[in-house]
User: Fold these one by one.
Assistant:
Number 1:
Amino acid sequence: MTNGDSTGAAATIVARGLTKSYGRTVAVQNVSFTVRPGTVTGFLGPNGAGKSTTMRMIIGLDRPDAGQATINGKSYHELRWPLREVGAMLEAKAFHPGRSARAHLGSLAASNDIPAQRVDEVLAMTGLTSVASRRAGKFSLGMAQRLGIAAALLGDPGVVILDEPVNGLDPEGIRWMRGLLRSLAEQGRAVLISSHLISEVAMTAEELIVIGRGQLLAQTTVAELSASAGSLEEAFFQLTDSVSEYQGRAA
Ligand SMILES: Nc1ncnc2c1ncn2[C@@H]1O[C@H](COP(=O)(O)OP(=O)(O)OP(=O)(O)O)[C@@H](O)[C@H]1O
């Protein structure tokens, strides 16, 4: 990390009592956790557990009904240059389809006072240099995913939040993503990645936050969780069994 605001204080995400309902659906209920710098933290839960809603509240896309989320001690809306403190990818295809990858990143850089040369750096980091002039709307899901990551890293942020980052990637892409996540943490960043697959998260994360039906079930480590049952998968199922949205019925 080279720039400004996040280098002095350790970059962290802190959620305190986050709560959000949509109509009668309680999506997130009184969820508190901390994501520390220098770690990859896996945010795990079955479908519909509230992972995306929590992430949206952290980056100011949804307003909590109660509670608060802060990034480096401030709410998202208080950050002077948000992209330079927190990079997020919540939806892979969050760009104008008619624009090239370079133009998309260039306009994000310009509006966040980020030097234009950083665009080429993130294009190279994400392996998109050779397709940078192509219209992003023609990108495959894997390429769109890489463009989303490039945008998230544009401001060299101390905090990185990625919703289902390996979704849609081929095996080579998955391996690349694992390496990238590890190197981001090694550089001292706080990295939060969501998934509903414990096996995937265990490949990169050491810390785990587990939620189900909107409630925090555990903040633990991969090592602790796997020690609590015969296998990591078994431990995860035991934690989430009572809160899975779709439970198979025994015949
Ligand atoms: N905009 C919305 N309007 C109404 N209900 C919503 C909205 N967003 C989420 N929900 C509901 O809130 C609950 C939590 O959804 P959320 O998308 O946060 O879960 P998730 O853990 O990210 O799930 P998945 O792994 O399936 O993406 C679900 O019951 C969902 O249907």
Note: The longest helix spans residues 171-186.
Number 2:
Amino acid sequence: MMVHPVVEKVTQRIIQRSRPSRQAYLAHLDAARVKGVQRGTLACTNLAHGFAAFPANDKLKLREQKQPSVAIVSSYNDMLSAHQPFEYFPKIIKDAVREVGAVAQFAGGVPAMCDGVTQGQPGMELSLFSRDTIAMSTAIALSHNMFDASLYLGICDKIVPGLLIGALHFGHIPGIFVPGGPMTTGISNKEKAAVRQRYAKGLATREELLEGEAQAYHGAGTCTFYGTANSNQMLMEMMGLHLPGAAFITPGTPLRDALTKAASQHAVKISQQGGEYMPIGHIVDEKSIVNAIASLHATGGSTNHTMHLIAIARAAGIVVDWNDFDELSKVVPLLARVYPNGDADVNHFQAAGGPTFVIRELLDAGLAHEDVNTILGRGLRAHCKEPFLDGDKVVWKDLPEQSGDEAVLRKYTNPFSPDGGLVLVQGNLGRAVMKVSAVKKEHHIVEAPAKTFDSQEDFMHAYQAGQLNMDFVAVIRFQGPRANGMPELHALTPALANLQDAGYHVAMVTDGRMSGASGKVPAAIHVSPEILAGGPLGLVRDGDIIRVDATQGTLDALVPADVWASRKMATADLSRSHIGMGRELFDGFRKSVTAAEEGAAHFPLPSPIETTVPLHEGTDSGEIMPGSDEDFLFPKSK
Ligand SMILES: O=C(O)[C@H](O)[C@@H](O)[C@H](O)[C@H](O)COP(=O)(O)O
Ligand code: SF4
């Protein structure tokens, strides 16, 4: 099926723009491949260290160097309710892989930060940088070079992007993402937000607030709003990196564990030894990235992916920018209304049809590419299925034709909105992104005087002192990655929402970011260049009229040109963001980070290597496979 002309145009533009770096990436991938098991390239001493602690039968298989070894890279910890279930996954995986004659090895853990625990706290200034720290930790795990396939256990915000960025730097290794599933529904996200707004007005006690939060976040599993974590799940389904429909199955259930077992055994199958070799670097290509952006728009996904997806693409040699997001947003309809884009949560979304329903609708609408590689082979249509238990095995069934709840999920023929959730706004303040799917139409344009703040705390002090009961645009400055690590400013949402509810026209403009769970207040975020990179946001003064217009895609200070030209860049003392809570360890990150529109990344685009010199000397069983087209079953980017 032909895709929509705009989808095709954006795809071809990305392919053209990415050609040098994508070809360099594929050359690196070729050079890393070996004939036989990857551990065949190790010397005996290395290998003995690699299997020393294993039980006899595993050790024998590892020593024989015939059966694949499957890496487990896990973000388990007790801090994220979403990742706590991963505690018992390694045992399920090892038993499942043994059943099919191979071996699974816990290759390494990666750090994972809960943005809910750190929201509004100093720790949030490490949050964005934790993504590439996770990517580096993934590389450290895989650098043992023992592995012929890998399972990535992660769900939340920066963790899936970090794991995937790391995995793509080992693009020759087949990989499958293994989710843990969402928390069961507690009090609704709307009720949770209402308690917060009452507390911000002084109408609820701290005990009432804590009780409300505890009823929202009440158990193991991912928080049930459609923030960055659950946006990640949609993207993994859309990119064919999950088994179909694995995203939103509750942790601790038989189906959840059966899916983990099935993913483990499928990883063996797509290893070179399994006969259906499918390296992850050939799954993530220009078309799968375009598909991911389309699914983000169709579901009102997290604004954080206007950075994370760009960084993921960059890791695979693919260059994406906010024009690509913006042009796709204009043709991809909004098909799901999940909080903050509506009242439903992800459990309702799943019951209505879930992410695989969205995949089918986008394919049927010609708004996604079907001809892509996935962990199941060639073709995305195989992922438009729903998993069920048949005994202790997973079987997949066709999706129902209709949505289970039209208030939550719709077919492309009857969308909530003809266009998607994220738009580019640009003007004399720079380039920024706005999530419009969660903002009422009457707030898509805000023109009001600026009030500048250099920290979240300064804003909250002014709010609590009653100084903000007016129409205004909050310009929160010095929040970019170079300044203080680009924290989420989600903690300002209840105050801004109260002011909006009181009838004031309010908006936020910042070089910082918001949570994927942020919603109703119009916010032009990720303003690039950031102030510390000379961004014009630093020229704004209190009282300047700021116009934020999501319909026209503009972001301007309406200041006479001569006055604007005479302005000096504001300065701020950021030292308190550079010391304490470990922030001093990330000084190098602040200095080396790329712009938000380049993914706020800490790694270069792949560049051509002089010759496809193998990364390591082969041995008899680890003979280096020459990188050549016929070795691959996969068409290169055209
Ligand atoms: O991008 C995201 O989705 C957020 O980082 C999310 O993971 C974060 O935890 C929110 O702050 C939680 O939402 P509440 O703060 O509303 O509980
Ligand atoms: S969704 Fe956010 S708050 Fe919930 S567990 Fe994940 S990181 Fe923490």
Note: Residues 80-82, 114-116, 156-157, 222-223, 227, 229 surround iron/sulfur cluster (ligand 2) (CB under 6 Å).
